[in-house]
């Protein structure tokens, strides 16, 4: 059965390592026959959540930016994938801002069950990437139906364009997409 897959790439750098991992996942998911949409946060207008919680009763945010359109796509997706560079042992600020702005989804019924995390980091020790995983697991725990289905932790990727089809992280992302 074909699944609706939404892949969010949060790097602002064109052709970044995390973006290449996202594209590998997309290729694998498409090869498996899934319907895939990739969304880059590069040129999106995403403002910070003000914490007013109006969205909890209205199911939408009062701010007019790109988060409403992204939330609509996330709500309908069966599989959600987040790709992020790791800065100071944390996900990118762009991704964190987006996750905060998904607050309107908290009170709604969402289709997604499986959530994947693709990350690229200069650090090679996978233990030091655990804070990023933990942070995403906190978001996932707000959606009863969802689970963290897989993680690609591409470490030792300090140079731009370090990820290529012959790297382990790329192959893992492709395989994860193929089997999502």
From TrEMBL:
Tell me, what is one Gene Ontology molecular-function annotation carried by this entry? oxidoreductase activity
Output the InterPro entries linked to this UniProt entry: Flavoprotein-like_sf, FMN_Rdtase-like_dom, ISF_SsuE-like
**Keywords assigned by UniProt?**
Flavoprotein, FMN
Membrane spanning residue stretches: none
Domain annotation NADPH-dependent FMN reductase-like: ranges: 4-114
Q: Which PANTHER family match?
A: IRON-SULFUR FLAVOPROTEIN (PTHR43278:SF2), NAD(P)H-DEPENDENT FMN-CONTAINING OXIDOREDUCTASE YWQN-RELATED (PTHR43278)
The identity of this protein, by name, is Flavodoxin family protein
Native species: Holdemania massiliensis
Q: What is the taxonomic lineage of the source species?
A: Bacteria, Bacillati, Bacillota, Erysipelotrichia, Erysipelotrichales
């Amino acid at each position: 059965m074909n699944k609706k897959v939404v892949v969010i790439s949060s790097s602002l750098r064109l052709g970044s390592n995390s973006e290449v991992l996202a594209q590998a996942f997309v290729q694998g998911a498409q090869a498996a026959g899934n319907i895939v949409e990739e969304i880059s946060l590069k040129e999106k207008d995403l403002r910070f959540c003000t914490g007013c919680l109006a969205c909890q009763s209205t199911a939408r945010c009062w701010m007019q930016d790109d988060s409403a359109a992204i939330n609509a796509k996330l709500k309908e997706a069966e599989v959600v994938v987040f790709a992020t560079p790791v800065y100071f042992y944390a996900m990118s600020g762009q991704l964190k801002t987006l996750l905060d702005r998904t607050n309107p989804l908290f009170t709604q019924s969402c289709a997604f069950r499986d959530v994947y995390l693709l990350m690229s980091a200069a650090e090679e020790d996978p233990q030091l990437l655990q804070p990023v995983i933990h942070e995403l697991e906190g978001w996932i725990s707000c959606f009863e139906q969802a689970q963290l289905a897989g993680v690609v932790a591409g470490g030792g990727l300090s140079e731009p364009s370090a990820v290529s089809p012959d790297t382990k992280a790329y192959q893992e992302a492709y395989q994860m997409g193929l089997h999502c």
